[in-house]
Amino acid sequence: MKDRKLLNIELGRVSVEEYKALPDSGIVVVLDNVRSAHNVGSAFRSSDSFKVDRVWLCGICATPPSAEIHKSGLGAEDSVPWSYAKDTMDAVAALKADGYTVISVEQTVNSVSMESFVPSALAEGGRYALVFGNEVDGVRQDVVDASDMSLEIPQFGTKHSLNVSVAVGVVLWHFTAARLRAQRSFDNDHKTQAE
Amino acid sequence: MKDRKLLNIELGRVSVEEYKALPDSGIVVVLDNVRSAHNVGSAFRSSDSFKVDRVWLCGICATPPSAEIHKSGLGAEDSVPWSYAKDTMDAVAALKADGYTVISVEQTVNSVSMESFVPSALAEGGRYALVFGNEVDGVRQDVVDASDMSLEIPQFGTKHSLNVSVAVGVVLWHFTAARLRAQRSFDNDHKTQAE
Questions:
Q1: pLDDT tens, B36-72?
Q2: In this structure, are strands A54-58 and A82-85 parallel, antiparallel, or unpaired?
Q3: CB–CB of B3 and A163 under 8 A?
Q4: What is the DSSP letter of A116?
Q5: Are the C-beta atoms of B179 and B140 separated by less than 8 Å?
Q6: For residues A140 and A108, what is the distance between their CA atoms, to the nearest angstrom?
Q7: Looking at CA atoms only, how far is residue B195 from chain A in angstroms?
Q8: Chain B contact for A2 (CB, 8 A cutoff)
Q9: Are A151 and A117 within 8 A, CB to CB?
Q10: What DSSP string describes B153-195?
Q11: Which residue of chain A is at minimal alpha-carbon distance from B108?
């Protein structure tokens, strides 16, 4: 069907100042010893797109300012707030103390397959911290043990591993879709009451 | 919670021969003039994970054998079948003739926001071809016009653009989650009838 592509000026991009004034999404990303600065930058870019409230960089993760993060992140490290923790366990402890449900993205004995998981707490102001691990070793076992649950992206192929920056995008979309559906449901209820 | 990470041998990875014997997912990926061989390889890797039936490489896309595709795809170009079309319009025409619903992933005047879109035809054997565009220019306007619909990944940040390999992962997950839910619903119905 004839369907005109939008121009860049029609995309509704916000400025860094407008971004910082957006309401919280309730979603935080934790990178546990991600080796590649390219992957850190990509995580920033996806976090900017889906309005992540903060990125925690832990252990060996590169931190801004970094030319490589800036390049793959298109500068998103300027819009998305970030923190650094030398030990990922300190970030997890801080987030739990702050009321976050901490979820490790890992394939474990008890991991929940993601299509079955609805982050329903988002609709009631609940907040989630999503932990992504090292390119080779995944999330550290002690971090998995300290998390509230493990979430698995089900896979069927010969590799059973996604690039970590792809995994960040996939999981952020799963949570963002739930957030948007909850928001629409709220808006509809509100509209009905107003009528 | 204590939750042991799975060992590599526990992940249920299939061989290339077993992969080719898996039932079709009903999902095909079309890459419309993707410039970076790294992104092509990443699309293969994600396509392997989510059991995409075929990857169409069009226009300037690099094709296997390619050291760069092999590196970023971890060799997934050996498991996922692929075809090449010099002109993306030829791939779209072939897919439409073969009964596929062709969906361009683009931000357009009439694009459907992805959280609102349920690929319900998968449950009845319907098939989808998902078109992803060039890193800078997106999907070509004539390809958008030839598609059955445009699907938009809603974004909220300062950039309004995802890396194309992240976009491939995000959209493939959205369709795969629907496929898994439909399959579970079918399995449950079947189980109920058998009881």
A1: 999 999 999 999 999 999 999 999 999 999 999 999 9
A2: parallel
A3: no
A4: G
A5: no
A6: 12
A7: 24
A8: yes
A9: yes
A10: ----SSS----HHHHHHHHHHHHHHHHHHHHHHHHHHHHHHH-
A11: A5
pLDDT the model gives residue A184: 83
Residues 97-136 of B with CB under 8 A from A: 104, 106-111, 113-115
The interface residues of chain A toward chain B in range 29-58, judged by CB-CB distance below 8 A, are 42, 45-46, 48-51
Rounded distance, CA A56 to CA B155, Å? 21
Q: Is the dihedral of CA B21, B180, B150, B166 positive or negative?
A: negative
Which tokens hold the place of B113? Answer: 């926001």
C-alpha atoms less than 13 angstroms from C-alpha of A45 in its C-beta half-sphere: 25
- When pLDDT is averaged across residues A64-84 and rounded to a whole number, the result is 95
Q: Which of A:139-168 have CB within 8 Å of B?
A: 139, 141, 144-145, 147-150, 153-163, 165-168
Nearest to A45 by CA among A169, A153, A157: A169
Q: What is the pLDDT of residues B71-85, one digit of tens each?
A: 999 999 999 999 999
Q: Is A26 on the interface with B (CB under 8 A)?
A: no
B19, B49, B109 member nearest A162 (Cβ):
B49
Q: Report the C-alpha gap between B73 and B148 in whole angstroms.
A: 29
Looking at residue B100, what is its pLDDT?
98
Amino acid letter, A70: H
What beta strand segments (E) does chain B contain?
Answer: 27-32, 54-58, 82-85, 101-105, 112-113, 128-132, 149-152
Residues of A in contact with B72 (CB under 8 A): 163
pLDDT of residue A192: 66
CB contact under 8 A, A3 and B181: no
Q: In angstroms, what is the C-alpha Rg of chain B?
A: 17
Is-contact A91 A66, C-beta < 8 A? no
How far is the alpha carbon of A113 from chain B, nearest alpha carbon, in Å?
10
Asked if A24 is an interface residue toward chain B (Cβ–Cβ < 8 A), one would say no
B75/B88 Cα distance (integer angstroms): 24
Please state the φ and ψ torsions of residue A16, each to the nearest 5 degrees.
-60, -40
> Looking at CA atoms only, how far is residue A14 from chain B in angstroms?
5
The whole-chain average pLDDT of chain B stands at 94
- Mean pLDDT, to the nearest integer, of A142-161? 94
ipTM: 0.94
